[in-house]
Write a structure and sequence with these properties.
Length: 114
């Protein structure tokens, strides 16, 4: 028998909201592997604008925030403290590394005779 330590996201749906004044907001629905415990529900509801039901979590965000919010939800379900790391979106250019200037090699002094 497998006992899951924490609920996992098994399905994820993103819907456009076509109502007036939605300003490019999408509704995200995450289906979970099992019903939430009371403490898990409290943790999830601390996230801004998130509604938790038995086996679903629903929130609204801008399209460019979907990946970030999904990662935050998964970390919250696992009980991990969220890390504020910005990840590059698909197709986004990553910053280029600037090559360092190499210091010129200094001539070596001959070793003294023994």
């Amino acid at each position: 028998m497998v006992i899951p330590l924490f609920a996992q996201v098994t399905g994820f749906k993103v819907e456009n909201l076509w109502r007036r004044g939605s300003r490019g907001v999408v509704r995200c629905t995450a289906r979970l592997s099992r019903p939430l415990l009371a403490e898990e529900r409290e943790r999830i509801e601390r996230l801004a604008g998130t509604d938790a039901e038995r086996t679903e979590v629903v929130y609204e965000c801008r399209p460019d925030e979907v990946e970030e919010r999904h990662l935050k939800l998964v970390e919250t379900l696992a009980g991990v403290a969220p890390i504020n790391v910005r990840r590059a979106a698909v197709g986004e250019k990553k910053p280029r590394r600037v090559p360092r200037k190499r210091e010129p090699d200094l001539p070596r002094l001959p070793e003294p005779a023994a």
